[in-house]
Amino acid sequence: MSRAFVKEQEDGDPRCPTPRGCGGNGVPVARATLNAQLPPTEASRLSDETYYFPDSACVVGYFDRMGTIVGVEHVATRTFPKFDDAPVCGCFAIRRGEIETAVDAKDNDRLKALLARTESTDARCTTKAPDGRRCTPALRRIVMERKGL
Predict the structure, then answer these.
(1) Which residues lie closer than 8 Å to 60 by C-beta, 6 or more apart?
(2) What is the pLDDT of residues 8-67, one digit of tens each?
(3) Of 26, 27, 105, 134, which residue is the least packed, with the fewest Cβ within 10 Å?
(4) Which domain holds residue 140?
(5) Strand 60-64 to 27-29 pairing
(6) Are residues 60 and 16 in contact, defined by beta-carbon separation less than 8 angstroms?
(7) What is the pLDDT of residue 149?
(8) Is residue 18 domain-shared with residue 67, that is, in the same domain?
(9) Is residue 27 part of a domain?
(10) 69 lies in the same domain as 106
(11) Which of 125, 110, 138, 111 is nearest to 54 (CA)?
(12) How far apart are CA 134 and CA 78, in angstroms?
């Protein structure tokens, strides 16, 4: 068979494997994040090129390019948006309702304080957040959505 008729895999964005996953894009995570968020037996199954999948509709927590998946039930920290009822911030347990209340009350000092906290050196995003990233962009997105912008 000619190679012209065989579609080769493309090296694009990492996609959550199917059939168990949903096929959406993942977020790259560091080994330190995996070791903090997963039991050792699960973390050791994943390669160094591993991704977190934040979509709440998908049962996959982490996956790697080899097709290995770890279910969301093994992830230590439940955060938004993977879980709607969970904190937006894994480090400081800042919840969506707290952000929305500050927006509704036009309490800009409170919003600034929340943002400052997420950007502080006290944040331990690499180990406290399942995606290993700061929650500041998600917090800002919630503020903008609540303000209707």
Answers:
(1) 16, 17, 20, 21, 22, 53, 69, 70, 71, 72
(2) 445 567 888 877 778 888 999 999 999 999 999 999 999 999 999 999 889 999 999 889
(3) 105
(4) 96-147
(5) unpaired
(6) yes
(7) 82
(8) yes
(9) yes
(10) no
(11) 138
(12) 15
CATH code at 41? 2.20.25.270
Three-state SS for 47-69 is CCCEEECCCCCCCEEEEECCCCE
Distance CA 91, CA 119 (A): 11
Residue 64 burial (CB count, 10 A): 20
Residues 68 and 107 in one domain: no
Burial status of residue 63 (CB atoms within 10 A of its CB: 0-12, 13-18, 19 or more): buried
pLDDT tens digits along 79-102: 888 888 899 998 899 999 999 999
Distances (CA, A) of 138 to 39, 112, 116: 26, 14, 14
Evaluate whether residue 19 is within a structural domain.
yes
The answer to whether residues 103 and 134 belong to one domain is yes
Residue 65 domain-assigned (yes or no): yes
Cα angle for residues 71, 75, 76 (degrees, 5° grid):
160
Do both 32 and 66 map to the same domain? yes
Residue 103, both tokens:
């927006």
